[in-house]
Write a structure and sequence with these properties.
By secondary structure, the protein is α/β, with parallel strands linked by helices. It has a single domain, classed as TIM Barrel, CATH 3.20.20.210. The chain contains 15 helices and 10 strands. The strands form 2 sheets. It has a 7-stranded parallel beta sheet with strand order 1-5-6-7-8-9-10. α6 crosses α7.
């Protein structure tokens, strides 16, 4: 099997592929270091939200390292670059002032920090989702890799995260609880932006759309499952339906960090095909329970701990964890092995390579 066939077989749960497919994302410093080691120049595709850049960059390098997937997404328009402020911050297309934190870009000024009305939401300028040049890199990589690799179209920060970044998390959560009318108006504006991006990627020929918003923490959900069902479930159902209207065969892959087991049945009901990142070591994400309870409805993508294991574990410990996750989640197919987040600079190159080697070694199925 080539990589495309391998991933499609696994995630469609249409049988067992020759081995469990592999996918991974690396931060800038690791990409630069591996690019130098492999002699492959790293091409960065700058996303409209900075941290997604590392999802959709370095496809030449990651496929050479062993990834079965190519990840593409919307970039900045032709001729556009982020304005840089006097204090070295950037201002993105949504008007968020951002600075580099210890690991991630952080929003330090939100364009709707004082919002209280629907009219204010309607007046704030939004970027053009279909601006000229926004899909140039995506088009190039889809054409180059579509025959041999599984192509993922990235649509993270689909609604909730982009909205609270525009307002500020504390205010947005409080106002959502108080049922302030502007909240749903903002969610709908962001939703329409995301739908336009996702439908364009589906038209271009990606194999899947990777939507998502983080609703979980280390111990539970940020909002109640009932609030999620009331506000977000119908909106995500609309997003998934719109994407399927372009291509009924496109797989819906959904990213949600943290402990979100209470809503997985709901997501399967509205069309999620694969759950990512299957964050380990949080309540409700025990691999045996997930596989036994949801394995007939969902595929799983992720599950390898990047909070402690990859930065601090030995290669032998990494190999043991990868083998166990594959044994459970990969039984009969339905699993793509991956770290549960972008691997950060606290992880050594040796441990990244240990993960890839372990996934290849232990992911082989016994073919008849």
């Amino acid at each position: 099997m080539n990589s495309k066939e391998r991933v499609l077989t696994a995630l469609r749960r249409s049988g067992t592929p020759d081995r469990v497919p592999i996918q991974f994302d690396l931060c800038r410093s690791l990409l630069d270091d591996f690019g130098e080691k492999y002699g492959i120049p790293v091409h960065y595709t700058t996303s409209y939200f900075e941290d997604v850049t590392y999802r959709i960059s370095a496809n030449e390098l990651r496929t050479a390292m062993g990834s079965d997937c190519v990840v593409v997404g919307a970039s900045l328009p032709s001729g556009y670059s982020h304005p840089v402020t006097e204090d070295g911050c950037i201002v993105n297309e949504f008007g968020m002032k951002m600075r580099q934190g210890p690991l991630y870009m952080e929003v330090i000024e939100s364009p709707l920090a004082g919002v209280s009305t629907v009219e204010e939401v309607e007046r704030v300028p939004f970027p053009d989702p279909l601006a000229e040049g926004r899909f140039d890199d995506a088009e190039k990589y889809i054409e180059k890799y579509k025959a041999d690799y599984f192509i993922i179209g990235d649509l993270e920060l689909t609604m909730f995260e982009m909205s609270w970044h525009m307002v500020g998390m504390e205010k947005f959560l409080i106002d959502m609880s108080l049922e302030e009318p502007y909240v749903e108006a903002l969610l709908d504006r962001v939703k329409e932006f995301s739908i336009a991006i996702g439908k364009r990627l589906a038209e271009m020929g990606v194999d899947s759309i990777w939507a998502g918003d983080d609703f979980g923490t280390q111990s539970g959900m940020m909002i109640s499952p009932d609030m999620w069902r009331k506000i977000f479930k119908p909106r995500f159902a609309e997003v998934f339906s719109e994407l399927k209207s372009v291509n009924p065969d496109v797989l819906i892959m959904y990213h949600c960090d943290g402990a979100v087991a209470p809503i997985l049945e709901d997501l399967a009901e509205i069309g999620m095909d694969a759950f990512n990142p299957v964050q380990p070591n949080v309540p409700g994400h025990e691999p045996d329970d997930l596989k036994s309870q949801l394995g007939a409805k969902l595929s799983f993508w992720g599950a390898i701990d990047q909070q402690y294991l990859l930065p601090n574990g030995s290669p032998a410990e990494i190999q043991a964890d990868v083998a166990e996750k594959i044994r459970v989640l990969g039984a009969g197919g339905g699993y793509m092995c991956s770290p549960a987040h972008i691997v950060q600079a606290d992880t050594s190159m040796e441990n990244v390579e240990a993960f890839i080697a372990a996934a290849k070694k232990h992911g082989v199925y016994n073919q008849p």
